[in-house]
Amino acid sequence: MKKILEIKNLNKSFTDTLVLKDINCNIYEKEVLCIIGPSGSGKSTFLRCLNLLEDIDSGNIIFDGVDITSEKVDINKLRTNIGMVFQSFNLFSNKNVIENLTLAPIKVLNLDKEKANELALENLNKVGMRDFAYRNVNTLSGGQKQRVAIARSLMMNPKIMLFDEPTSALDPYTVGEVLNVMKDLARSGMTMVVVTHEMGFANLVANRVIYMDEGRIIEDDMPRVIFKNPKHEKTKEFLARIIST
Question: Angle at CA 97, nearest 5°, toward 86 and 106?
């Protein structure tokens, strides 16, 4: 399987606190990698480093054969290939649904408005939101907003999609509709890295699961190993706590 991301000796600190400690990890094409662990373990910071939303202190991130930590890399061009879905949606509240989707393709890819609208309707259809194309985003539920955010990421035809706890801001009734969209994406062959507290999703959909604690990767294995037979004591304690609540 082809490596799409290679992370070597990654370190990241905020002021005097080291939050990522010597991270080494490979992510492969068409893989679904879920990252789990307690709050404050560095999961979201790690994810944000993968498209340089966070500057790193040291190490290398190689995306599709190119070291993106090099000063020569056009970071804006890079981000067209790495989709990002945030827990808080990050939609433009002054624009309707379809305008949220077409803004970047028109400005960044120079797509004409008609083609951008056509592509937007296709992607909204994929997430079950085509009928909401001309709605004000402020009228949507949290789950609907997150599905629109996923469709917006698909507009750039990314090679990989990063999800930062995409269901954590949702009520229990709308979590399922977002997870179903993500399952469909996984089935379509999209490469995905997902920071999540949804253990059922990680167990069912992921090819690999990483457990992080205190800025380090403690375990990296197949879901059936992580959830049924974890090797590290910290992983066992975390899963016992999560599954019992």
Answer: 85
